């Protein structure tokens, strides 16, 4: 129902197989995520620590959910000499392909403590439902005596 795409994932996997590296050549995922189904909705959590909520964009087009976020540098003032800079800066993006069983028109999102949570309801047409069975026998007629 929910598919993700990462154009470099297969390249990373192939590189690991060819060179026998287990993670040393892999590029880090800038926007790690968890996704699961909870009742009648899919929930996706994106880790975006240090990102201003105003710098996050969510777009849906043709069943593709795009999450774009920008981590901007922190203002440090004058006469500051950076010693270590490991936190990635810039624009990060992820795309999720939403299956037809999800209702892309009712997506909701919230951001708290550096985690973007996206809730995607299961479409009504995809929910399980009971179907009445017709026996094909006519109702018995009452005979007045």
TrEMBL record:
Which SUPFAM superfamilies does the annotation name? HSP20-like chaperones (SSF49764)
Which InterPro entries would you find in this protein's record? Answer: A-crystallin/Hsp20_dom, HSP20-like_chaperone, Small_HSP
Q: Which Pfam families match?
A: HSP20
At the top level, the lineage of the source is Bacteria
List each copy of the SHSP domain by range.
24-136
Return the similarity comment: Belongs to the small heat shock protein (HSP20) family.
Name this protein carries in UniProt: HSP20 family protein
